[in-house]
Amino acid sequence: MRITINQIKEMKQRGEKITMLTAYDYSTAKLVDEAGIPLILVGDSLGMVVLGYESTIPVTMEEMLHHTKAVVRGTKQAMVIGDMPFMTYHISVDDALYNAARFIQEGGAQAVKLEGGVTVAEKVSRIVECGIPVMGHIGLTPQSIYQLGGFTVQGKTQEAAARLLEDARALEEAGAFSIVLETVPAQLAKIITEKVNVPTIGIGAGIDCDGQVQVINDILGSFTDFVPKHAKQYAKLTDIISKAVTQYHDEVKAGSFPTEKQSFSIDESVLAELTK
Ligand code: KIV
For helices 61-73 and 93-105, what crossing angle results, to 10°? Predict the structure, then answer.
């Protein structure tokens, strides 16, 4: 049985920290699941770290569904959350509901995430009403980078901070089971965390959130085009991969790969017939 939204909410009540990581493919998701991480987000960061787009804006529903299915196949315990792409929940409540349902029905996810607070509350409410758990996402919302003016810290003025608190309350009221707080001052994240009953999951939002989320490529050091300040590299996969690929290339060129160990053979008698 996979982790449920009630178990996630109970973790906040117990003061137990919640870990979330992104994953985009079967084999990585399997490792994350086996590590016991309860929440796996198939983030639209897919667009940047896997597909090579400059932002998350070009990511489509079909791309997200393709990767969500792979992550679901690789997991047994974790709740898989599908990230709703740009403009798949903005136009109307019906649109939002239709696309959220696709993540559950076609993708096999157990929840969806969408960006925004007060402005998406009606959509969140309708999706939840139809039985689909929703994770909110406020602060730096990458689908709005052109409006925000870049990947900058949000909620720094009194007005902006008050607006974020209002957004968090609107999401809670609408029935979101948790809220991602991205790139906001740690003190503000702490206040929001104390004032809402649903778990907050921070990314660049300090230590006092109920949980933390990171893009897996950032913590593994496998995406280096852009390394956010909030990311800690627990490994440097780019170095390991480059070294392995270069060694393979060198060995093929030198004729030292494959060896007998990586080769197959047939019986001497068959060989004798063939070479007659
Ligand atoms: O797309 C993503 O990976 C995200 C996380 C950074 C929260 O939205």
Answer: 30
Strand 39-42, strand 211-214: pairing: unpaired
From the CA of 22, give the closest atom in ligand 1: 3
Give how far Cα 13 sits from Cα of 18, 29, 134, 174, Å.
Answer: 11, 27, 19, 20
Segment 151-172 shows an average pLDDT of 97
Q: Is 182 a catalytic residue?
A: yes
Identity at 175, one-letter amino acid code: G
* Rounded distance from Cα 44 to ligand 1 centre (Å): 6
- CA–CA separation, 158 and 7 (whole Å): 34
The pLDDT value given to residue 227 = 87
Choose the catalytic residue: 129, 182, 260, 273: 182
Ramachandran category for residue 67: left, alpha or beta (phi over 0 → left; psi -120 to 50 → alpha):
alpha
Rounded to whole angstroms, the Cα distance separating 21 from 222 reads: 14
The model's confidence at residue 139, banded by pLDDT at 50, 70 and 90, is very high
Q: Which atom of ligand 1 is nearest to the CA of 20?
A: 7
Q: What is the mean pLDDT of the chain?
A: 97
**Which domains are seen in the chain, by residue range?**
5-235 (3.20.20.60), 240-274 (no CATH)
Cα distance between residue 114 and residue 191, in whole Å: 22
